[in-house]
What we know:
CATH architecture of the largest domain: 3-Layer(aba) Sandwich
Number of domains: 2
CATH superfamily of the largest domain: Glycogen Phosphorylase B
Oligomer: single chain
CATH class of the largest domain: Alpha Beta
Low-confidence stretches: none
Shape: globular
Mean pLDDT: 95
Number of strands: 15
Largest sheet: 7 strands, parallel
Strand content: 15-25%
Radius of gyration: 22 Å
Amino acid sequence: MKILFVHQNFPGQYLHLARHLGTQPGNEVVFITQRTDATLPGVKNIVYKPHRGITQNQHHYLVDTEAGLLNAQAVARVALDLKQAGFVPDVMLGHNGWGEIWYLKDVYPNTPLIGYFEFFYRFLGADVGFDQNEPQIFDNAPRIRTKNLGNLLGLDASDIGQTPTQWQRSLYPEAYQSKLLVSHEGIDTGVVKPDPNARLNLPEFGIDLTRDNEVVTYVARNLEPYRGFPQFMRSLPSILEQRPHAHVVIIGGDEVSYGHRLPDGQTHKQLMLTELGASLDMKRVHFLGKVPYSVFLKILQISRVHVYLTFPFVLSWSMLEAMSAGCVVVGSKTAPVEEVIRDGSNGLLMDFFSPTAISERVVEVLAAGRDGYADIRQNARQTIVDEYDLKTICLPAQTSLLAQVARS
């Protein structure tokens, strides 16, 4: 089979699928991307760049749309070169978020296209307006409506769509939901699993921790309000006071993935450290920044309690991986989390905006000791094994979909 992938940040959501297909005899796998520093066995990468930057001083509603259009044009040019060289894929897959798939069907009209659709923007019922302290202005509604131009272009271009959760699917217009399949990328539960002997030894941070320690963990791509970083930080003084031997391990960068940037180059980490000041015992609060996956995994395996907070937005892989590693997850009572975690059964839920509720839940788990909440830990892992396991559920579903779509 000939397969064409497109994702600007190779391999993105296609890591497991592209790696699997690349190792199968007889497959020819080509991946169009902007990334130059990563490869997978059996996968041929072709790097593209937009031919210019976005227009300066244009209407701010259209910035994302023009960026997507420039990506789409560049990808289409690469696809035209591939077609001229004799490469005609049996199936195409691509993430719609950056416009890259919009014109693929104009190059290969007879090849089925599976689009990856992550989030349809809503003025009501999702991330916008969730934080009631954010000012609500009329401009928000038309701006959000216009932001979905790329979603609508991609939905129209794709033969079928993939989205990772039921809640994310529910955000899309009802007219398009019939072509969207809920299909998660999967968690490799054979790799992400409990390890009673795990140890996190990072002398450069003064850390040497095991499961015998009271370790509170927090993970986000970047430390920002969308992932509840301010609420988590405000819960720490109480946690550290009540549990004098607890350590807090925080993973995440200082950039902004979602939401607004702070003025003058400030970071949310700086803002919270300034706000909390001496109330934090910084000898027990460890900011590790962005870490290799092997370190991330050990952090989950030594965690006594893992805190995951999010706006009603895209669900992070890290929460599912924490459950697969046997963590007690203290999560926010928000739509994407509630789809997976049942309070008191396979995790604990509380109000996103309540640092007091977060600290109370975390302290309860820490006070229960190393082997406390064993049922919740076991249930958390079993949920991932039963519903999100890569090798037995998600990867077979995706390969089956590819074969079916290619045949059709």
